[in-house]
Amino acid sequence: MKLHLSLPMMDSKQFLCFPESVGRYKEMPDHDTERLSGSFPFFNLHLVADGEGYVEENGKWRLLQQGDAFLFFPMQPQKYRSSTEKPWDVYWMHFYGHRLDEFMSEKGLRQTQLWSIGQKILLEDSIERLIREIENHKLLRPSVISTLAYGVLSEFLAQAIPHLSRSSQDTLQIIIDLLPEMQHKACEPFLLESWAEMAGISSYYFCKMFRKATQLSPMDFVTLCRIHHAKQLLLDDRDKPIHQLAAACGYPSVSYFIKRFKLQEGVTPSEYRKLHL
Question: Is residue 121 within 8 Å of 77, Cβ to Cβ?
Fold first, then answer.
C-alpha cells in the first residue's frame, strides 16, 4: 500500500501549518529514503503504526517500532528505511508554515529526532482525518486542511516524549490504559500507592512515567478531573450548596475546595456560577 497525497505550495504566511504532502506506506519492505543536508525544505513527521524500521541518528541506525515517531526539521539530512523482515506501517506528513521553525524550536523539538508517542491512536486519527479531507475535497477547503494539519502537529506535541526503550514504553502504555479509570474514580480518595500497585511499579516510577504520559503529576490529573466535575455540577444543580458540591467532588474541606477551584479557574465556585447565569 502506497498512499501519497501532494498539494501545491501555498503562501506560508497565510497559514501556521500546511501540508506539502501526506500519506501512508504499508507492506513496503523496499521503503528506503536518503536526503542530503539542505535538500528538503519541509518538516518531515513519520509515525510507526506497526512493524519496524530504522532511522539514522548520529551515524548509528536506531530501531523504531509501533508507537515510535521521528521528526526532521527542514534542510536536515535524513536517512530512514523499513525493516525487510517486519515492514513498517507508517503515517507521514511533510509540512511548512509561518514561523513554524521558531515555534517548534521553542517547544524543544530540536532536542532529538526520535520520539515515543503516548497514545498513538490519537495521532493516527488526526492524520487519517487530514487524509480523508484531501481525498474528498482536494484543495477546495484550504483553511480546513490547515486546521487539520495543525491538529496533527498539536497531537504530536501533546503525545511525544523523547524515545523510550521498549520496556519503558510498555509501562507507559499501562499507565495510559489506567487513565479512564482514574478519571472515573477521581472524586474518590486518591491513593498513589494503590494506583502504582495496579501498574506493577513503585510509586516513584509511577509518578515519573505518569508525567511522561500526561505532562502532569497524578495529583494534578486528578485535580483537573475533579474541577471538571465540579464545573458541571455547579451549572447542572444550581441549588446545591457549595459544601455538598465540594464533598461530591472529593473535597471534605470546603475551604480547600474553593482554594483549589480558584487556583485553577481564577474565580471561586460561587463566582463561576454567577458568570454563567
Answer: no
